[in-house]
Design goal:
Shape: elongated
Number of helices: 17
Radius of gyration: 42 Å
CATH superfamily of one domain: DnaJ domain
Largest sheet: none
Distance between the termini: 110 Å
CATH class of one domain: Mainly Alpha
CATH architecture of one domain: Orthogonal Bundle
Structural class: mainly alpha
Strand content: under 5%
Oligomer: single chain
CATH topology of one domain: Helix Hairpins
C-alpha cells in the first residue's frame, strides 16, 4: 500500500517540476542557438575579423593597415603563387580569391571607427542578435552622401531655376509694355527730354547702321520702362529674398513676425476695439476675396479706392458687392455672342450627345 502511494506521490511531484523547468530550458536553447549563429552573414561570417588579419583587439589603425597590405599581396588572385608547404586558406586560386575577399572584409570592418565599435560590441554582447543585424545593415545600406548636402544642393538648384525663370518672365513683360502705345509714347518723351535718343543717333567715325540704332533705341525705351513702371504680380522684378533658399533661411524670422503681428491685431482690434486703418481694411478685403498678396497688389489704385469707398471690409457690404459682380457677369455672358454660340452648341449637339447613323 505504501509503495503505490510513494510511486503515485513521486510521479505527481516530478510532473509539475518538469512543467516548471521547461520554459527556462527552451529559452536557454533559443539563446544558445542565437549565440551560435551570431556572426552568420555579418562582417567576416563565422570568422573573427581580428584573427583573419592576425592582430589583437587593441591594435591600432597603422598595425591593421600593415597586416592588411601583407595579406592582400599574399592572396591577391592576380599575384598569388602557392608556396611549397603552404597550408593556409589560399592553397588554390579559387580559395585564394575567397581568402582575399575575407581579408578585405575584415579590413573594411576594422578600419572605420564606428563599424569597429559595432563589431566589438557584437563580440562582447553576442546575445543581442537582432540588434547586431540592425546596426550592420543600417550602416551598410546608409547613403554615401550626406542627406543634408543633397537637400542643400537641391534647394540651391531650385532657387537658381526660380531666379532665371522670373527674370525671363520680367523681360517678357517689359518687351510687351514696350509695344503698348501708352507706355511707349511716354518712354519716348522721357528719352527725348533726357537727350538719350539724340545720343543713339549721333554720327561719328564709327557710323552705326539703322538696325543698330533701332536696337539701341529699343533698349533705351525698355530701360526707361523698367525704371518708371512698377510691375506687380507674377511678372514683377525678381527679388533675392523671394527665392526658396532665402525663404527657408528667413522662415524663423517670418514666423516670429507673424506671431507678433497676430498678437498686436488681437490686442488692438479685438481687445481694445480700435478702428481699422487703411492697411488693415485692405487686408480684410483681400482675405474676403481670397486673393494672394501679389494678385491684390497687381490691381489698379482706383479699384482699391472703390473697395474702400464701399466699405467692403464689412462682411454685409462685401456680400452685396459679390452678388452685384455675379449679376454683372451673367449679363455680360448673356450678351456675349461667343457665349451664345457655346450655349446653342451645348443645347443642340454638346459633347455628351449620342448619334446613330443608319447605313
Amino acid at each position: 500500500m505504501a509503495a503505490p502511494l510513494a510511486r503515485r506521490w513521486g510521479a505527481g511531484v516530478v510532473g509539475p517540476c518538469w512543467l516548471v523547468l521547461m520554459p527556462p530550458l527552451l529559452l536557454a536553447l533559443l539563446l544558445a542557438r542565437s549565440a551560435a549563429a551570431l556572426v552568420e552573414g555579418l562582417y567576416c561570417g563565422t570568422r573573427d575579423c581580428y584573427e583573419v588579419l592576425g592582430v589583437s583587439r587593441t591594435a591600432g589603425k597603422a598595425e591593421i593597415a600593415r597586416a592588411y597590405r601583407q595579406l592582400a599581396r599574399r592572396y591577391h588572385p592576380d599575384r598569388y603563387r602557392p608556396e611549397p608547404g603552404d597550408e593556409g586558406p589560399g592553397r588554390t586560386p579559387q580559395s585564394a580569391e575567397e581568402a582575399f575577399l575575407l581579408v578585405a572584409t575584415a579590413y573594411e570592418t576594422l578600419k572605420d571607427e564606428e563599424t569597429r565599435k559595432d563589431y566589438d560590441y557584437m563580440l562582447d554582447h553576442p546575445e543581442e542578435y537582432y540588434s547586431h543585424y540592425y546596426h550592420y545593415y543600417s550602416r551598410r545600406l546608409a547613403p554615401k552622401v550626406d542627406v543634408r548636402v543633397v537637400i542643400l544642393v537641391s534647394v540651391c538648384a531650385i532657387s537658381v531655376f526660380q531666379f532665371f525663370s522670373w527674370w525671363n518672365s520680367y523681360d517678357k513683360a517689359i518687351s510687351y509694355l514696350a509695344t503698348v502705345p501708352k507706355y511707349r509714347i511716354q518712354a519716348m518723351e522721357i528719352a527725348k527730354q533726357q537727350g538719350l535718343l539724340k545720343k543713339a543717333k549721333e554720327k561719328g567715325r564709327n557710323k552705326k547702321s539703322k538696325e543698330e540704332i533701332r536696337d539701341e533705341e529699343e533698349n533705351i525705351i525698355k530701360n526707361i520702362i523698367k525704371s518708371k513702371i512698377d510691375i506687380k504680380g507674377g511678372y514683377q522684378k525678381p527679388q533675392i529674398c523671394d527665392l526658396l533658399l532665402f525663404q527657408i533661411l528667413l522662415a524663423p524670422f517670418h514666423l516670429c513676425s507673424y506671431v507678433v503681428w497676430y498678437c498686436r491685431w488681437i490686442y488692438n482690434f479685438n481687445i481694445k476695439g480700435k478702428e481699422y486703418g487703411e492697411e488693415e481694411r485692405l487686408y480684410i478685403i483681400r482675405k474676403s476675396m481670397k486673393m494672394s498678396k501679389s494678385q491684390f497688389d497687381s490691381l489698379e489704385d482706383h479699384q482699391k479706392e472703390t473697395f474702400l469707398k464701399r466699405e467692403l471690409w464689412i462682411k454685409e457690404n462685401y456680400e452685396v458687392y459679390k452678388q452685384e459682380q455675379e449679376e454683372e457677369l451673367k449679363k455680360k455672358l448673356a450678351n456675349d455672342p461667343r457665349w451664345k454660340r457655346y450655349r446653342r452648341w451645348m443645347k443642340n449637339e454638346g459633347p455628351g450627345r449620342l448619334m446613330f447613323v443608319d447605313d
